[in-house]
Every structure is written in structure tokens, then in C-alpha cells.
Design a protein that fits this description.
single chain, binds guanosine-5'-monophosphate, 9 strands, 185 residues, alpha/beta
Length: 185
């Protein structure tokens, strides 16, 4: 039989509750609604991690909005990114007549979004901004700030609300600190 763990065996503690996440998403949705009223807006979600946040966020935006997805993977171990980004799926619409917001789950070193910002800027959108659910400013390796930033968290490896450990745990509705014994052997 497969040696499958119970979900609690992966988790150390809740870092951000469901209620705090809901409040953060509602607030960001309201700001985006106000800032982009009357403008042609596209949200570009970064798969896989960004899908939970994007799906909640779009329902808090009260203006017409298009959405699309890109998929990236970064080389490295399961809890450390290397900063080398590989584009697996691109969007298929031009951006030169649109305002763009890239929607990410978390900013850590900032390398992924620096790469994506440069890639999208080259397509000449009307404007280009970043929206992230969580941010670990202490970990930055390059200067990068999200115009729409949800909740700052400490330097911990987190899971849930779209964020994974080794492909699993994205389905947790809260944000948890991953138990260190899972990856420190
Ligand atoms: P960056 O390029 O800013 O270092 O990292 C961005 C990506 O690394 C995120 O989109 C996410 O996939 C992954 N990442 C960074 N920190 C964490 C974390 O604490 N937990 C999880 N599950 N992924 C993370």
C-alpha cells in the first residue's frame, strides 16, 4: 500500500486564516475596480500557484475584465527556487491595447516576476502592474515591488491557498507553515 500521510502531518501552524485572506482579496478587488474603471484590463494568472487567488480576486472585481494564464516552472528543489524560470505556457492574445496585471501567489526572491515583467513589457501593454497575495520582502534578491500586495509574511516556507509542497497541499483554504521535518532530514 502507498504510504500516504494525513494532511496535518505536513503542517506546522496556520499563518494566515481564511478570514484574513477573504478580507485581503476583497480589499485588492476594490482597489483594482476603482483604479481600472473605464479601462481595458487583462489579469494574467501565473500557474499553477496563482489559480486559487486569481479565481477569488476576479469575483471581487466589479468591472469587465479579461483573464488568461501563463505557466512557469522554476528549476530547483521542492522548497528552494533557483531563479531560473522556464515558460511552459504563454498567453495567446496581444497586449498592446490593454492594461495588464500579473497575478501571482507569492513573491520571494522576486526573480520570477522580474523575468515575467520584462517579457510582458516587451509586448507594449498600456500599463503593467503586479498583484500578489503574499509577499516575503526579507527574501528579495532583486528590487521588485508589487503595486497590489496582499499580506506580508516572514521567511517561512508556506503551503495552501494555491501554494504547494512537491505538487500537493494547494487545496488548503488557509496559508500554513510547512512542518520543517517534511523537508529537513
Ligand atoms: P521568486 O521567483 O520570487 O523567488 O519565487 C516565486 C515562486 O516561488 C512562487 O511563485 C512560488 O511558486 C515559489 N515560492 C516562493 N516561496 C514559496 C513558499 O513559501 N511556498 C511555496 N509553496 N512556494 C513558494
Amino acid at each position: 500500500m502507498d504510504n500516504i500521510k494525513e494532511i496535518n502531518e505536513y503542517l506546522d501552524r496556520v499563518l494566515v486564516s481564511k478570514e484574513q485572506i477573504q478580507e485581503m482579496v476583497a480589499d485588492l478587488g476594490k482597489r483594482i475596480t476603482e483604479d481600472y474603471n473605464g479601462k481595458k484590463l487583462i489579469l494574467i494568472g501565473v500557474l499553477k500557484g496563482g489559480f486559487v487567488f486569481l479565481s477569488d480576486l476576479v469575483r471581487e472585481i466589479k468591472i469587465p475584465v479579461e483573464m488568461d494564464f501563463i505557466a512557469v516552472s522554476s528549476y530547483g528543489s521542492s522548497t528552494k527556487t533557483s531563479g531560473v524560470v522556464r515558460l511552459i505556457k504563454d498567453i495567446d492574445v496581444p497586449l498592446n491595447d490593454k492594461h495588464v496585471i500579473i497575478v501571482e501567489d507569492i513573491i520571494d526572491s522576486g526573480l520570477t516576476l522580474t523575468y515575467l515583467k520584462e517579457m510582458f513589457a516587451a509586448r507594449n501593454p498600456l500599463s503593467l502592474k503586479i498583484c500578489t497575495a503574499f509577499d516575503k520582502p526579507e527574501r528579495r534578491k532583486v528590487e521588485l515591488k508589487a503595486e497590489y500586495s496582499g499580506i506580508e509574511i516572514p521567511d517561512e516556507y508556506v503551503v495552501g491557498y494555491g501554494l504547494d509542497y512537491d505538487g500537493i497541499l494547494r487545496n488548503l483554504p488557509e496559508l500554513y507553515v510547512l512542518d520543517r521535518k517534511i523537508y529537513e532530514k
